[in-house]
Amino acid sequence: MNKNKMNYSVFLPIPFLTVDQTEMEYLQGHTMISVLYTDDEPALLELGKIFLERTGDFTVTTATGADEALHMLEKEKFDVIVSDYQMPGMDGIEFLAEVRNNYGNLPFILFTGKGREEVVIQAINSGADFYIQKGGEPRAQFAELSHKIKTAVSGRRAEEALCRSEEQSRDILSAMPDIVMVYREGIIVYANQMTLEVSGYSSEELIGSYIIKFIDPGYHKSIRKKMDMRNSGENTDDYEIELADKSGSLHHVIVRTAPMIFNGLPSTVVILTDITERKRMETALRESETLYRTIFENTGAGTIIIREDNIIEKASAVFSELSGYLLSEIEGKKSWTEFVAPEDLEIMKIYHISRRKNPDTEKKTYEFRFLDRYGKIKDCINNVAIIPGTGMSVASVVDISYKKEAETELKNNNEELNASYEQIKAAEEELKAQYATLAESEGIIRLSEERLLMAQEIGHTGCWEYNINSGKIWASDEALRIFGISDRGEELPTEEIESCIPEWGKNHKALFDLISEGKKYDTEFYIHPADGSAPRYIHSVAKKIEGHNNSPTRILGIIQDITEHKNAKEALRLKNYAVESSMDGIGIADLSGIMTYANPAFISIMGYDDLSEVIGLHYQNFPFNTEEGQEIFNELKEHGRWSGEVMGRKKNKTPVVLDFSINMINNSEGIPVAMMCTFSDITKSKLAEEALKKSENRYRSIFDNANDEIIIHQMAPDHHPGRITEVNRRAIKTLGYSRDELLNMTIEEISHPHTTEECNQINNIILRDNRAIFPATQFTKDGRKIPVEVSTNYYEYESSPECVAVIRDLSERITAQETLSRAHNQLKLISGITRHDLYNQVTAMMGYLEIMKLGENDISNGEYIEKLDASLRRIYSIVEKTKYYGEIGINEPLWQNCHISADRAVKELSPENAVIRNDISTNTEILADTLLFRVFYNLIENSQRHGGDITTIRFSTEESGDDCLIIYSDNGNGIPTAEKEKIFEKSYGKNTGLGLFFSKEILATTGITIRENGICGEGARFEIRVPKGSWRTAGPDN
C-alpha cells in the first residue's frame, strides 16, 4: 500500500466497524432489493418486472403514475425508485422533487426514452442517482438497469453504515477510560468526558483550540514532526510526553494516534493513557533501591550476601575493613569459610547447611572467631538469614573483640580494686589501733612497712602518697608506668607527671577540698603519657589520714588505668545511638507483652507522636490481625525467635507491611527476661513489587498470546544469529518443537534466508540500523517449510547482544496472492475463450439467419435451424465449461472421497452402452479442489465423445512409492502418441477443447498431476498422481 495514502478503513486501534463490514452484514440480512417501478406503459412495467425478478435479487412493485407511486411510498418502504420521465400529470422530474422533499436521499433512477441533454442535466440537478436511456437489446438494457439499482442501493447502505459507524465511534470514544481527542488540521474537534475531567478544561475551552497549546513547549518540535508524519499518511509509533492540566499539574502520558473519518471528514484521533502513577512507582522503586544500598553500606556491621556455593556475592565496606581485603578481592571470589577460625568452621558449616533446610527454625545469631587477612583472630557476633525466594543468605558480622577484652579487664580490675579497698580499710583500722602505742622512734619503721604493705596490696594498680607536713609525694612503680615514666630516679618527677594531666588544676582543687573540707576525692581524667603513647583515662581515689589531734597528716591514693573500660562504655553509647538513629523500628517489651522501649523509627513507622504513647501498650496493639499476632507470640515462646512479613496496624488503624523479626532477650543465665523486635516498612516496595509483577504478567500475556511468532535469540561473536533464549506459544505451536527443544537450538536451525549472501547482507543491516525486515523460510519439526516475514530488532541485554524476532506466517498471504493470480489468469482465459469462440458462433448464426431471410438457396430452413441449434448448443457448452472453470481454486481444498466423487460423475452422465466399474477403495480420500467430481465427469464425457464404441470404463487405485495413483481406463480407440500431451492444452480437439484442460487445472491446485499413458488402439488410460500428504485412507481411527 502507498504509505502516502491514508487508510480510513480502520478508524482506531480498537475493534470499530468499518463501512465494508457493515455493508456486508447488511446485505447478508437483506438478500432482496425492493424496487418501486413507475411507468405509464403497463407492458414496459410487466417486461421490466420479469427481467429484474428473474435474477432473484429484486422484488418489483409497479405503479402506472407518480401519484400512485407516492401513495405506495406512504404505506411501504422501498430500497430504490425507478421512474419513467414522460408520464401524464406529474412527470419524472417532478416526482423526483417530491421524493427528495419527503424521503431524503432514497435512491432514484430515471429510466426513460428521452435522451435530450437538457433532461439529463435537469435530472442530475434534481438529485437523480442515475439516468438510463431506454432502447437497444432488452436483456442488455435491463442488465444495465439491474447494475445501476445495485450500485445506488449499495451506496445508500454504505452511507447509512458510515453514519452508524461514526455514531458507534463516538459512543466508544466517549466511554473509553483514556483521554481521547480528535483533531483536524491541528484544531480540536472532539474531546471525551475523561479529557474534561483530567485536564480541568471545559468542552468550550478545548473545542476549536489548537491541540499544541495544551502540550509542554519542550515537546512542541517533536510533536509537530509526528503530526506532519501523520498528515502525510505515515504511521507513527507510540511515544511519551508530559501534559499540564488547567491547574498546572503535569501528567505523564503515552500518546497513540490513528487516522479516522469524523463528521465525514478525514481527521486524527489521539488517545492519551495517563501513566503518571506508574512513573511515580518507578521513581519510588529507584529510591527504595538507593535506600537499600545506603542501609547495606551504613549499618555499622560487616554485611555480606552469600551465594548457594558459599561464594560471597556482595560485601559492604565495613566487612572489607574488618577482613583487610579489598571489595574486588572478596566479591565473587572469596568463600565465607575463609574468614572463620578453624576451630569454629565445622559448627559454622553445620549451621549453614541446616539453615538452608530449615530457614525458620535454625539458629540465626551466634558468636564465632573471625580470621582476617593477616591471620588475626577477632571475636565477632554473626546474624544471618536466608533471603526469601532465593538460595542466597545475608550475614551481618560485628567485631566484639574490644568488648570481650574490656569486660575481662574490667572484671579483673574491679575484683582487685575491691580487694584493695578492703585491705586498705583493714590496714587503716590496724594502723589506728597501733598508732597510739608506737613510739616516735618507730615512725620510720612503720612508714616503711606501710609502703611495703601498700605495694603488696594494691598490686598492678598504682598508688601514691602525699605527706602534708613535708610536702613530699611518693608514687609506686605501677603508678609511674601508667604515666609513661619508666625511670623514677632519686626524686619523683612531679613536674613531668603534672604535665601529663591537661586538667591538672581540676585535680589539684579536688585534692585541696579533700584536705581542707574533707570532701570525697573520686575523680576521672585523661592523661597524655610521657612516653608519647596513646592517651589514657585514669580513675583516681584518695583518702585523708589524720594524726593525734585529728589534723590531716597524709593523703593515700590509688590510680587505675580505665582506658579500655571507657572505650567499651563509649562503644556502648555509640551502639545505643545507632539503635536510636536506626531507620528500622526497634522495640522491647516485657514477657507479658507490655512495651518498655521503642526507638524513633518504631514511633514514626507506626504513626505515633512520641514515646509516651507507646510505652505501656500491649504488643497486640500493633499487628493488623490479632490472631496472627498471637501466632507469632506463640512461635516466639516455643522457639525463641520469629521473622517474616507481617501486616502491622498504625495508630490510625491503617495497615502497613513490615519485614519483621522478634526474639527473646536472655540474661546471663539464659533465662528470658524480655522480647525485642526489629522491623522495616516495606509497604512501598511491596506495592512496587506487585506493580512490577502485574506489568511483567501483562507483557508476558501479550508475548504469549501474540498472533505472530516471537523468538528472542543471542547474537554470536561473528554477528550471526546464535542460541534461542525465549519463545512464545505461537512459535511452539507452529514449529512443533517443545519449549525446551527450541531453547537448545539456534535461530538458523529453524529459519534463515535463502542464500549465504542474503544472510550476510541482513546481518550487516541489523548491525547498522539495529533492525531489519526480510523474507525467510522456516523448517518445522515434521519437515514442513513455511514462508515467513521476519522483523528483527537488535539490542543489548545485560551487556549481551540479543535480537527479538517477530515472525509472520506468509502462507495464507501467498496462497491468497496465488489464488488472485490464478483467478486473474482464469478471467483472462475465460474472456479470451468466450470472446473468440462465441464471436465465431454468433457470426455463423447471423450468417444463417441472413441467408434464411434472403431465401435464395435450395437448403431448407429446417437445416439452417439445425445449424443454428448446433451453434446454440456449442455456445451453451462453452458457457457451462467456463462457468465451472471460474470456480477453480476459489474455495479451500477439501478432503474428498474418490469413490463417491466418481459415482457422482457417473450418475450425472448416465452412460448407456458402457459398463462402469468403480474399484476405488471406499475409504480412499484425497485433498483436492471442490470441483474434483468434474475431473471424473470430464474423463467419462471425453470417452463418450471421442472413444468410439466403448463398452467398459474402470476406476481403480494403486500405490507408487509414497504417492497414490488413481487410474481411469476404457476399452475404446485410445489416444495417439503424438496427442497424449496436446489433449490437455486449451481448445485442442473437437467440441470446446476445454474438458481435459480444465481437469488438469482443477487437479493442479493441490499439486496433483494427470497424464495419459494408454496404448493407442487398446483404450485410453489416464493416471492421476496424488503426492504424499494429499491422500489418506480413512477409517475409525482416522
TrEMBL record:
Q: Residue limits of the PAC domain?
A: 237-287, 521-574, 642-694
Instruction: Supply the name of the protein.
Output: histidine kinase
As recorded in UniProt, its EC number(s) are: 2.7.13.3
Q: Lineage in the entry?
A: Archaea, Methanobacteriati, Methanobacteriota, Stenosarchaea group, Methanomicrobia
SMART domains, sorted: HATPase_c, PAC, PAS, REC
Q: Which Gene3D superfamilies match?
A: 2.10.70.100, 3.40.50.2300, Histidine kinase-like ATPase, C-terminal domain (3.30.565.10), PAS domain (3.30.450.20)
Q: Extract one GO molecular function annotation from the record.
A: protein histidine kinase activity
Concerning CDD domains, the annotation shows: HATPase (cd00075), PAS (cd00130)
- The residue ranges of the Response regulatory domain are 34-149
